[in-house]
Model the fold of this input.
Amino acid sequence: MVSLQTPVCDFGKPAVDFSLPGTDGKVWTLEDCRGKKGLLVMFICNHCPYVKAVLDRLVRDTRELHELGVNSVAIMSNDPHQYEEDSFENMQKIAREKDFPFPYLLDATQEVAKAYGAVCTPDFFGYNADLQLQYRGRLAVPGAPGRQPQGGRTEDARRDLFEAMKHVAETGKGPEVQIPSMGCSIKWLGE
Done:
């Protein structure tokens, strides 16, 4: 497992269009996913301990963001030949088990991850209503995978992503200070 941090937010950069198959059997585009007040594009996978450690909070936060007019979409771009746990069938299984409130899409060619500049899982891209990038940071105060976050219990962790996207929904702008997300490197084809 190679741990990486995301680059700083490139404020105003437009969201990249895509057309990807979802675990629900539908093909999703950027326009299908967008919310009235914004869109959260998340690069995640099934096997990454960083993703596993935050998945329940991610489901909670995306449900609450939806109520604020911010939709979410998760994209899996890893090479599933390197990690069977990231297969499309396992994507479908985890989406059902966790009752994902967002589409979970397969980026089999990895073109979408490259177009967004995604580097790790999880990697978050928060857009305003005009689909301009306003957030590229962490979900919450981190702890090591499987451990409690700094400051105590998981449910008490500061919700950086949620608070940032709530601010985006209300103002159209993300916070000036953002702390990078950290996670496992994307498993690129042929590596």
